Amino acid sequence: xxxxxxxxxxxxxxxxxxxxxxxxxxxxxxxxxxxxxxxxxxxxxxxxxxxxxxxxxxxxxxxxxxxxxxxxxxxxxxxxxxxxxxxxx
Length: 89
Prior knowledge:
2 helices, 6 strands
């Protein structure tokens, strides 16, 4: 309940982060999960977890690319805008 956002940086672990870790984090009801996708050079933002789903999953996925900002939403409020350029190497 203390975690509002969890971020993974992925290249070779991209499939594992999307599927396996996504299920683990959704089951834990973590409200926001981002993957910094180094392969496609984008940020995948997952939200609206369904911890009771079979399997647990996030209901929403948004993709952001260079030049865009990712809204950090906690408790139904946008508290920050993070530039994709600042997250990618």
